[in-house]
Design brief:
It is built from 14 helices and 16 strands. It is of the alpha/beta class. It has three domains: about 100 residues, STAS domain (Transcription Regulator spoIIAA, 2-Layer Sandwich), CATH 3.30.750.24; about 70 residues, Phosphorylase Kinase, domain 1 (2-Layer Sandwich); about 210 residues, Aminoglycoside phosphotransferase (APH), C-terminal lobe (Aminoglycoside 3'-phosphotransferase, Chain: A, domain 2). A six-stranded mixed beta sheet has the order 6-10-11-9-8-7, with no helix packed on it. α8 runs antiparallel to α9, α8 crosses α13 and α10 runs antiparallel to α12.
Length: about 400
Amino acid sequence: MSNVSHEVNGNVLTLFLSGHIDSNSAPELEENINRIREENPCGEVVVDCEKLEYISSAGLRVILRLKKSVQSTRLINVTAEVYEIFEMTGFTEMMDIQKAYRVISVEGCEVIGQGANGKVYRIDPDTIVKVYLNPDALPEIHRERELARTAFVLGVPTAIPYDVVKIEGGGFGSVFELLNATSFAKLLIRGEKEVDEVVAMSVDLLKLIHSTVVKPESMPDMRAVALDWADFLKDYLDAQYYEKLHALIEAVPEDNHMMHGDYHIKNVMLQNGETLLIDMDTLCHGHPIFELASMFNAYVGYNELDHSIALSFLGIPFETASEFWDKSLRLYLGDADENTAKEVEKKAQVIGYARIMRRRIRRKGFESEEGRREIEHCRTKLEELLPQVDSLLF
């Protein structure tokens, strides 16, 4: 009985292996593969190992000869047991071999975090999973893992994902071990910590992040990203306001200090007295004004026209979110007085409203009354703020 079947899609030949491949079955397997390839000449071979239970050295030699014959040969859906064989024999260093992903469900699980690109669920007392909004998120997942490792090595306390899973119903997720970890949002919601105490912990971690120097090529430059936001708005702002916005951002010097990029109380956890940063796919570098703009949006900007959003997104009332922002900004600035804090807030608002306006336009905001109202609100705010702000630096 043959332990290989196949299908052809364009220039790609997919071989489906099954059962045990050992010294007895390997010759027949190779003969069948050669016959299939002769009948279906293709430039790329994908070997699907979902039903492969075991492979011996004889089977490995078949795979090796196939790889030598067709350089663009890769293996997918390899079970953990079979993957270990490939790893021990060095095959994972010679060719592209992808593990099979276990499937989990997040139905009914508590949402403990939320960011720009996904939601974080607790699936058991020790484990959380970040589910990505993009159903084809594998490149994002691998990128976030590298960013998290970079931050961890540089001394920023963060959880590093140890597994990638498929989510029942579609999409992918990253799995983290976070024993007894509670988000800052949950600490406030449960009344376990007062606002001032959580603000102090949040700002301490934020200052640690911002004091960390990174290699600029290791993560995105937030200044360049913000310039793109400004350029997008060129057709939606009067020329004088667009030019002022672009000039202000362009005048911000390059800065190699780390930023989180989506820093708020649902993306910071407390675990056994230690703060941990999660949701690392927005990690970047730049001047802290860009981070403060993101924080303003999370606590105030996105919720200004509809205060209920603060409760649904952060889990706290808008008034508490606004208080948290005000106290965080003043503490970050070294217990600044109200006037100093307000001046820096205006700088953050310039970036924040530009970002919200762009986001709403890109999401077809002109097609709804709610969207048009938010776009006009941001435009009005920018027209008020830009004449008052001569520099984004502080």
